[in-house]
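yo, 2-isopropylmalate synthase is done. seq:
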Amino acid sequence: MAMNNEKTRIAIFDTTLRDGEQSPGASLEPEQKIIIARQLEKLGIDVIEAGFPVSSPGEFAAVRQISRELQGVEIVGFARAVRGDIDAAVQATQDAARRRLHLFISSSDIHLNHQLRKSREQVIGIAREMVAYGKQFVDEIEFSAMDSTRSGMEFVIELVEAAIGAGATIINLPDTLGYALPEEYGELFRTVRREARGGDRVRYSAHCHNDLGMAVANSIAAIRAGATQVEVTVNGIGERAGNAALEELVMAIETRKEALRAETGIDTAEIYNSSRLVSRMMNFPVAYNKPVVGRNAFQHESGIHQDGLLKNRSTYEIMDPEAMGIPRSMIILGKHSGRHAIKHRAAAYGISLNEKQMEEVYEKFKAEADERKIVTDDQLLRMIGEAADEYEDPYTLTDVQVLSGTQRSRIASVTIRDREAGTEKMYSGMGAGPIEAVIHCVQQAIPVAAEFEDLELHSLSTGEDARGEAVVTIVHRKERYRGTAVHNDIILAAAQAYIGACNQAVRSGSIRRAESAGENAG
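structure:
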């Protein structure tokens, strides 16, 4: 590792498009892979493992197009230690400005005996032969001893020596089953680097799975032990419990870089955009409590936390969410929130409350929070309006009707009141699903150039009277607005949340009223 104030540059190897896509239900179309790859390049990824070229024609074509288009990043072709795999990987990446061949073979006795059915001597022979074969075509060869953390140290060293001798330039020691403890994983790297012949002239990479929740901790242990590359996925997606999460590892290094003496080339401002893109395209929701990019990661409900945070952000935050592109909707208003947080949220909308109004709002707020757990901005503003006797939403949904059927498109009609125009009009629309049909109606009533970016639906209870929460995010002029609604009817909740997001944009002044007139009634 580097000494004094010098920091080791850690290369970030992203395998979202290969290992990440192996998550159950997370497969991508070739076109989607290319869109994600472009965002990964924008994020500042050093190395992209774009797929497993031999696995299908579509996979081969996607890796080939990514190789041709993304000339500013190193592209990896993934292959088993088999000639056909190597040929496909070499062909798919031949147009890359910089490319690498990534070969793997199992090293643990469990895998050798029950999967490969090969002896250790045979595996060493295959590794030596296939690395040498690949070296004819590609200078940069990464060799992975799969399941290395459950293999005997002596055999791992012997296998690594064979790969280095045949031309491997990067040695990856993957914790394939997420089995290792950090001290064990670090010792594996230290021992191989020290004892393998030629081990001091190659680079080392860590590839950790998260079965025991230690993928990032193990990756950091590898960095401390001399690894200069870490293999990650966006949102930590991957087989079983997933891989080391890119956003967690990068922000751990960024936040503790002085202690780790390490740094990356990642543009942290693109972390949130990357997370949302992968989540949407892979239909893979991000857990509320997911570090760095989860919905609750920078939201504080406790009154003590909120009060401290509003006085000085560093009291309860070690990272700046805005530096990662995360909207600053940091404080959830819930039953533990205090007057300070309510006053601050009102001030964000240009509203000042006197003491009497504050007490009236606070009493209503506590009653609502006890019943619904959280209070949305729309609900709070409604309470403030009632206390001040002057508030009304710019747009109000007064009625929704949806006609569904198995053999037809869904048809919806909505009635929306426009406060400024003083009108109440009905709009109709169609869609493949009922929510899409309702959204098309609302877009006629509020025809702003706002992108309907995201919809989250969550069940808040069980049973026949279960209530659902809808969270809608829209984008207008590069600003995000989020509306939330809770209702027994999830279609109605989605419509209310969408209008709530639009109302926030209107109140922010970013939407000109001339754009918001409702001339297009259907």
